[in-house]
């Protein structure tokens, strides 16, 4: 039985390696990452717990490079924290072929980035944004903003092959959550220590199926935890996902964190999760006193 399982894993890894190689050749482009300023990075996820960190432990942010994500610029905290790095992992923002509410969110985020950013900001986007004038023109509207593009190409297959692709920025574990490209980028920027805050990831207790089989998820953030309402999870900015699709998306994210943690260790990088009550079980926990 063990022999059969080993053969099965070998065949799966072989197929995944070949498929990934084709994807890299077709989709991935050369990457130039930002240059780090400190030896430690703090990734600011937008989970509800970030509110406590910003209010009660602001001193922890000092002497660290800060990376904000997604809709952080829509909040007042953006101009107070002034992150040097910013990751946006919302592929539906690279196109206008989306529902009206998604388009409105994109336009609001772009406006806030342009109007609020009065310090040097390295904005990191998926390479699909290269084709979007809305994003490409950001440095023209605000010279403080520098654009960097990364490859969200999903990397699968044999471990040495995966790590080679990771190291050369060809792709990453499937980026179903913004924390995945954020951590992979931070690792490849050669930080020695990476802290993760606001990564509650407690969606499972906020997920339910209505009597009409519509699946609702209340996605709570530090800026809307008290007023967040149940909503459907869209597919690339349109329609809605079924329960099995949502759970599969969650599974891929939680699984990716173990791969990221192992890759980080191979690069001499230590990742600490400082998020209280986080559902992520891959990274070593550390409490902020």
Structure, explained:
With 289 residues, this protein is of the alpha/beta class. The protein has one domain. It is built from nine helices and ten strands. It has helices at residues 2-27, 50-56, 77-81, 100-116, 133-136, 138-141, 159-167, 179-188, 243-266; strands at 40-44, 65-69, 85-88, 121-126, 145-150, 193-197, 207-209, 215-217, 270-273, 284-285. Strands 5-4-3-2-1-6-9-10 form an eight-stranded parallel sheet, with helices on one face. A two-stranded antiparallel ribbon has the order 7-8. Strand 1 (40-44), helix 2 and strand 2 (65-69) form a beta-alpha-beta unit. The termini are far apart.
Key traits:
single chain, 289 residues, alpha/beta, eight-stranded parallel β-sheet, two-stranded antiparallel sheet, 15% strand
Explain briefly what this protein structure is.
It contains nine helices and ten strands.
Q: How much strand content do the residues show? A: 5-15%
Biggest sheet architecture: 8 strands, parallel
Helix content: 25-40%
How many helices? The count is 9
Q: Give the radius of gyration.
A: 19 Å
Number of strands: 10
How are the strands of the biggest sheet laid out side by side?
5-4-3-2-1-6-9-10
How many domains, as an integer? 1
Structural class: alpha/beta
